[in-house]
Amino acid sequence: MTDFLKNFSLEGKVAWVTGASYGLGLAYATAFAQSGAKIVFNDINQELVDKGMAEYNKLGIEAYGAVCDVTKEDMVKEFVADVEQKVGTIDILVNNAGIIKRIPMTEMTLEEWNQVIDVDLTGPFICSKAVLPAMIKKGSGKIINACSMMSEFGRETVSAYAAAKGGLKMLTRNICSEYGQYNIQCNAIGPGYIATPQTAPLREKQPDGSMHPFDRFIRSKTPAQRWGKTEDLMGLAVFLASPASDFINGQVVYIDGGITAYIGQDPSNLDPSKFED
Ligand code: NAP
Ligand code: GCO
Known about the structure:
Structural class: alpha/beta
CATH class: Alpha Beta
Oligomer: single chain
Largest sheet: 7 strands, parallel
Radius of gyration: 19 Å
Distance between the termini: 35 Å
Order of helices and strands: HEHEHEHEHEHEHHE
Bound molecules: NADP nicotinamide-adenine-dinucleotide phosphate, D-gluconic acid
Shape: globular
């Protein structure tokens, strides 16, 4: 491998991806493993951890996994201490764990609001705070946050999620501001609309077999006229986790098939017969 390409290697690094039993987290962790990193992941319950472990084993990836709720600071501190003892100091943290509740704001309870804010914004605060001291001591570290189209745009029924993801954009900038002096880079991945369990309800076929209206809408807003695949995000994740991105800090990198650059077209102009997926 040429010296330049070694900058994209994660050889010898310990990477923690939160909520990585499936979905985008599994894709990020898989990409990291294939780039040389040791993988550490957590999920909300043992069933999901076991599911994730089975996936990693199927992919030939040796992973360390344990139950840890990112909203519980004591659990996170214990998880990080276990990882440091059994695997090593965490070099890369991806704050991937997230939930969404699609409820009109006037109908959303305060408990539902808090649940989303706790996972999607406070969780990254708790996990980042847990790994930063060792990164400062080591003189290097990478934190990658899971931002979203909703870090920039609002839409009906996702008030808590948009507020959390907007706040996560600013937390990304603040970690950059406060810890960049220790050679720690904090950036965010801003996926467009990606086909995972989280967005499955937005792609479900209608009873008559026609496209979900939101599916048609998103394709009319995306120049690529398709949903993203988890594989589409793996290269950016490795780049932001590697030395190749050491002078990039506080940025949200959108990987969205062009949504953020395009005003969109009339959904009725789309020809579903041309869709690949
Ligand atoms: P997903 O399929 O819902 O997976 C999220 C994972 O996080 C699940 O394993 C989930 O477990 C776990 N989790 C939830 N609450 C947790 C907690 N308190 N502690 C630990 N783990 C927890 O989501 P995804 O589509 O892969 O998205 C991953 C991240 O990218 C999320 O932050 C999401 O907001 C963001 N994102 C997704 C898209 C997209 O189009 N898919 C686009 C932009 C940004 P459970 O199964 O129990 O919920
Ligand atoms: C929604 C979707 C989005 C995606 C993603 C877009 O209901 O609008 O779930 O929020 O999850 O965040 O970038």
